[in-house]
Amino acid sequence: MNPIYFAYAQAVAKIGGAIRETANKYGEISSCKPETIDDIRAMKEGYQQLLKEFKSQKAELNSITAPGIVENEHAQLVNIFSEYIQAIQSLINSLDIDNVKADTTMFEGGLEKQRLASAKIVAITKVMAEKLSK
Hints:
Oligomer: single chain
Number of strands: 2
Order of helices and strands: HHHEEH
Structural class: mainly alpha
Shape: elongated
């Protein structure tokens, strides 16, 4: 593999590992069903912390200069990751601590948007890996 491609792939993989770790923590929170105001508050606080981590990871991903061969795919990856982050923001917004409720429709919609963005991330990274390995 071309050394420039290899260095790029390593940089993206490093951020990908951090994203996976954050996503695993996110999954732990999402597996809980809020039943009390304390549950909703804890869930919201956890999501807000993870949202900060994801935004930091997006900034790192965005700062990487992609080789020309995957420049468009890299831009797509950053945009799709932005969609993923927006889905998490929807989940956070669905947890209304002031009115002691969770908007389950908004929450489920956020989860679906997150699933779709995850699938797109997998697809675009496969295309990038194929291009870089040639």
